[in-house]
Specification:
Oligomer: single chain
CATH architecture of one domain: Alpha-Beta Complex
Number of helices: 15
CATH class of one domain: Alpha Beta
CATH superfamily of one domain: Amidase signature (AS) domain
Helix content: 40-55%
Largest sheet: 10 strands, mixed
CATH topology of one domain: Amidase signature (AS) enzymes
Radius of gyration: 21 Å
Order of helices and strands: HHHEHEHEHEEHHEHEHHHHEHEEH
Length: 436
Amino acid sequence: MYISPASLPGTVAELRSGQLDLLKYVNEICDRIEVIEPHIQALIPEPDRRSRLLKEAEALQNMYPDSNKRPPLYGVLVGVKDIFRTKGFPTRAGAQLPPELFEGPEAECVKRLREAGALILGKTVTTEFAFFAPGPTRNPYNPEHTPGGSSSGSAAAVAAGFCPLALGTQTIGSVIRPAAFCGIVGFKPSYDRIPSEGLIYFSPSLDHVGLFTQDVEGMNLAASILCYDWEPAAPGEEIAKLPVLGVPEGSYLAQASEEGLKAFEAQLKMLVKGGYEIKRVPAFENIKEINLLHRRMAFAELAQIHEEWFARYEDLYRPQTKDAILTGKEVEEEELKRARAGRLALREELEALMAEHGIDLWLSPAAVGSAPQGISATGDPIMNLPWTYAGMPTITLPAGMSESNLPLGLQFTAPFMADERLLEWAKGVEMVLRRL
């Protein structure tokens, strides 16, 4: 097991106050990476990482000698999934194509992190073009198991204590699933709530920029910096009360494994014991159609994004990605239009069910079960798909361990643009789930 505590709020407080010397912090993390990284391979190799970070840390110290004027993420090390353009780093997107193809201005969300005082630890491993062809990353809880994908390296780096915050993306389940598999918090905001400019897109209609931290308090801090128009949830009667949780009964839930469903029922009992009201509501009656529309749209847009690259470098693509592109080429414009329209229709349907039944948050398993053994695949994202398709904000919280002693997660979903309420309510839920 290669996990280690790395609280974003705690690290920020110590660095900003000077209680933790910035250069000492950098050296300690680099020491840990030298020992642990060979076992989990979360980071894109960088031969001069320590010297670069120490130089950047010294510059930051000189810029902010007064602790009272230090920015909100002063000195914090952040991992960046290798599909974001990042100044000073090549972008390879987990692929064998020439990195020069992906050059361009730095991603807007990376700029925001730098402006907030963060230091870029490095690029984190991603599956090829954020799809299913995995990289070498292993799960810090048990290296014989996958960390999930496609944000494999970001989730593993946070779980291993390399950085208290990392950037990822989700097109189907690439934030929520790896966070659950690695026993940390993953947040996929409302669609387009975090700017995606500077991202090597998989599917512009579905891609969400997401975040990884070790606790909800840290996620609140990160979201307040990166999300457009963030307004902290005002203390009041609505937020003070426990949210009513809705379980989407039916064919969607039946997609989980026997192990996953058994754990889910135990997690529900713990939440009821903690004072939460849970309502079981039939939903996703057309889940098979939703799943198909989502995938066909994603593949069609992937084919469009890669049209020129694929024509020149087809032989450099791995089989899973190549098959997805070829499938996407077959999708006709009318089907693509219908799939895009279906996103809003599903969102409206889910929010209408919430209003009808007095539900504040949907509750569901974060994955079909715990992390599968081996790293040749990243696990099934099917439990995350409809929430991504609808563009609704979703957070996964650690929720105990499986019978095989691997982390489990629960995902909670709020109405569109209710990200602030979701994270505020998640604080209380997190406290209950820690007892599992």
